[in-house]
Amino acid sequence: MSNNVNTAVEEVQEIHMHRDDFGSKMGMWLFLFTEVLLFGGLFILYAAYRYIYPEAFVVASGELDVFMGGINTVILLTSSLTVVLGIVALQKGNKKLCLSFLWITVFCGIVFLVNKYFEWGAKFHHGIYPKGPALQDMSEGEVMYFGLYYVMTGLHGLHIIVGLAFIGFVMWQIKRNILTADNFQRLENAGLYWHLVDIIWIFLFPLFYLIH
Amino acid sequence: MANGTIAAHGTAEVDFYHVKSKHKGLLAWLLTTDHKRIGIMYLSCMTVFFLTAMTFGVLMRLEMLTPGMTIMTAQTYNSLFTLHGVIMIFLFIIPGIPAVFGNFFLPIQIGAMDVQFPRLNLLSWYLYIIGGGLAIFSLFGGGGWVDTGWTFYVPYSVRTTTNVSLSVFAAFVLGFSSILTGLNFITTIHRLRCPGMTFFRMPLFIWSIYATSWIQVLATPVIGITLVLIILERAFGIGVFDPTLGGDPILYQHLFWIYSHPAVYIMILPAMGVVSEIIPTFARKPIFGYVPIAISSLAIALVGYLVWGHHMFSSGISDTSRVIFSLLTFIVALPSGIKVFNWVATLYKGSIVMSAPMLYAMLFIFIFSIGGLTGLVLGALNTDLHVTDTYYVVAHFHYVMFGGMGIIFFASVHYWFPKMFGKMYNEKMAKVAAIIIGVGFNVLYFPMFIMGYMGMPRRYYDYLPEFQIYHLISTVGSWILVSGILIMIANLLSGLRNGSKASSNPWEGTTLEWTVPSPPPLLNFDKIPTVDHGPYEHPEIARRKEEESK
Question: Which chain A residues contact residue B521 at CB under 8 A?
Answer without folding.
Answer: 8
